[in-house]
Amino acid sequence: MANESRPCPCDIGDRFDYGGRGQEVQVEHIKAYVCKPPAGTDKAVIVIHDIFGWQLPNTRYIADMLTTNGYIAICPDFFVGQEAWKPSNDWASFEDWVKTRDAGKIDKEVDVVLKYLKDQCGAKKIGVIGFCWGGAAVQHLMLKNPHLKTGVSLYGVIRRFADKHSLLHPTFFIFGEKDDIIPLEQVTLLEQKLKQNCKVDYEVKIYPGQTHGFVHRKREDINPQDKPYIEEGRKDMINWLNKYL
């Protein structure tokens, strides 16, 4: 289990020097980063950030990657103006901090974003992906939101929704084998519960040797042995979205 003084090892890792191809917009009470492909499309993906917030360059890099694959991508500020976590913050305060940012209480914001995507962007088929905190939010949405078609949860914190498995939509779960905060026994239990309770398509995949945040917080060129798994995770994410959107 995680060291209690560091309950979430969401280190920025290799913070990308990346400006982003999209633009920031105001969607009712929420700020959001939006990127659209050159060709028109009715497919969109909501990107739910991790604890480092909607402005993290790494997350915008992934949003732009979705756009290069033909999707409208939007990364809203699901903290709604509250400060994102900073690596310099005291980890002893993390649990109190995260209690004020509940991944299971984003429904109002999601409804606003869905309306924007449909009315302003012409989106008809909408999926969602999320990282860490956002991965837990994806699981929450897949359990209850009828307007989303599919989801990809990347190292979503299982314990946030440990007792809920009756998914409404096809969901892909990505985990790293060496993740300090999501032990493999939790992943195994998740698989067992999904097998017992889930009526829709799902997949749980563990990537060998990978740590928390590997898909969006490691540069591909940083370590040759990680590169294939980083690229595989991203490709698997895109393939899942392509299949269900």
Automatic annotation (TrEMBL):
Alphabetically ordered keywords of this record: Cytoplasm
Gene Ontology MF terms: hydrolase activity
InterPro entries cross-referenced by the UniProt entry: AB_hydrolase_fold, CMBL, Dienelactn_hydro
Chief place where the protein resides: cytoplasm
GO cellular component: cytosol
Domain Dienelactone hydrolase residues, every copy: 30-245
Location in or out of the cell: Cytoplasm, Cytosol
Family affiliation: Belongs to the dienelactone hydrolase family.
Protein name in the entry: Carboxymethylenebutenolidase homolog
Organism annotation: Erpornis zantholeuca
Gene (UniProt): Cmbl_1
